[in-house]
Please model this.
Amino acid sequence: MTEIDIVGLGIGIAGLVVGVIGTGIALYQWGVMNEAKKRRHELQYLLAGISNTALLRRQSWLNQLSLYPAPQGEADLNLKRMLVRARDDLSEIHSLVAALEGAVDSEKSATTEILKKTIEQGELNNRIQKLASQNQTDRP
Model:
């Protein structure tokens, strides 16, 4: 082996080591990026859940408000104002959390996906109820 061969072999080995290290770094970066994407989606679903809960609580408040009679005195009016204020606060929470969810990923809405899944679950539940009622009528 000549001196040139030894230098060439050394350069080849060094290139191989650099290539292996570069591949390792690329794999690490790929893993970090995928994990960050998962965490971003987890945060988005958490925010969507909070948003949906606030929306449901708001609807519950609206239902309760519809049951109250017209205010008869100052105390009734103050109670009605307090309930309306709570409804408005829940609306604000829903709007703010929905905006935060959109800031996490503006192209993909976890809220929409949750609502679609809720609709699918409702449809499946309706089918189960229908099958259950058919089974009861089929009995002798």
About this structure: The chain has one domain: 39-138.
